[in-house]
Amino acid sequence: MPLRWLGLGTGVAGLAASGLFGGLETVAKPDVPTVAVGKAVDGGPWSVTVTGGRLVGKLPTLYLRDGKRWFTVLATIENTADESRADFDDAIRLSGVAGIAEERPSQVRLVRDGSKPTYLNPGLPERLAFLWEQDDSTPAPKSVKVQVWGTTRRLDTIGDTWEWLDPERRAEVEVPVQDRRAG
Fold first, then answer.
1. What is the Cα Rg of the chain in Å?
2. How far is it, in rounded angstroms, from Cα 38 to Cα 46?
3. Is residue 46 within 8 Å of 93, Cβ to Cβ?
């Protein structure tokens, strides 16, 4: 019998045996924890503390299309990595909020002055506003589930360098939404 057939037979037998013991079944990921507003979440290179949600109208420094309003999530983000980082907009996402099409925010601004941050330095927490455009005709939600995302620092097998990889949800925060639109 040719050696190739022996190898093929061994592979098929191994695959069949692993199937019998559940080796081909998908492993369910554990549910992400729900944390309280104001509680810090380890998001890999970030410590994320969601502090609130707001509906606001036009803002002085941001263009807003007609028929839209800003849906805002407020959070304090601290860079816990060793280097300055610019990917902080990946830390907060929304899913399943009526009138919002994108999970990631369309804008991120510093709460203290409304400017657009380019990067955050290690060990210096910043209060940020994560903003999404929401259809103004959508009823104002009383609360939403905000997702906190993080990554894991590990050796990149392609570049053989240490990187923050494997984005995943780390927690959800049930956030009450205040309607701060004028009028």
1. 22
2. 15
3. no
pLDDT tier for residue 96 given thresholds of 50, 70 and 90: confident
The DSSP-derived string for 86-127 is S-GGGSEEE-S-TT---SS-SEEEETTT----S-B-BT--EE
What's the average model confidence in pLDDT over 112-123? 94
pLDDT, tens digit, 9 for 90 and up, residues 30-54: 688 999 999 999 988 999 999 999 9
Question: What's the pLDDT at 142?
Answer: 94
Tens-digit pLDDT profile for residues 125-151: 999 999 999 999 999 999 999 999 999
| Residue 36: strand, helix, or coil | coil
Smallest CA-to-CA distance from 58 within 42, 43, 72 is with 72
Q: Centre a 10 Å sphere on the Cβ of residue 23 and count the other Cβ atoms it contains.
A: 11
Place of tokens 């990889």: 165
Residue at 156: amino acid letter: D
Distance from C-alpha of 82 to C-alpha of 44, rounded to nearest angstrom? 12
**How far apart (Å, rounded) are the C-alpha atoms in residues 5 and 76?**
60
CB 100 within 8 A of CB 71: yes
